[in-house]
Write a structure and sequence with these properties.
By secondary structure, the protein is mainly beta. It has a single domain (about 5-105), classed as Immunoglobulin-like (Sandwich). The chain is about 0% helix and about 55% strand. The protein contains no helices and eleven strands. It has strands at about 5, 10, 20-25, 30-40, 45-50, 55-60, 60-65, 70-75, 85-95, 100, 105. A hairpin with a 2-residue loop joins strand 6 (about 55-60) and strand 7 (about 60-65). It is globular.
């Protein structure tokens, strides 16, 4: 059973548009939700994280929204740029211990 599910699997956006990726998780005890970006041939690099004590976290062009009751979160990337083309990975777990990775969503 997959602990974390992400959608859409692929997202094509034009430069300047907003990218929106969604993630759902099953374990209500999860309290830490980092996102990573992975370029082809590279390892995942940390982007942004949110803890369960807040429902929104913003950092530059990135905003994460968390809906604890629905066990869902979403990542919004504003003003998309060519360098944003990558696989974005949603993860969830218990801070600071284990993290469960989703299969990833590609922003093209």
């Amino acid at each position: 059973q997959q602990q974390v599910k992400q959608s859409p699997q692929s997202l094509t956006v034009q430069e300047g548009e907003i990218s929106n990726l969604n993630c759902s998780y099953e374990n209500s005890l999860f309290d830490y939700f980092p996102w990573y970006r992975q370029y082809p041939g590279k390892g995942p690099a940390f982007l942004i994280a949110i803890r369960s004590v807040v429902n929104e976290m913003e950092d530059g062009r990135l905003t994460v929204f968390l809906n604890k009751s629905a066990k869902q979160l979403s990542l919004h990337l504003t003003t998309s740029q060519p360098g944003d083309s990558a696989t974005l990975l949603c993860t969830s777990g218990s801070f600071p211990m284990s993290q469960f990775f989703a299969s990833g969503g590609k922003v093209l």
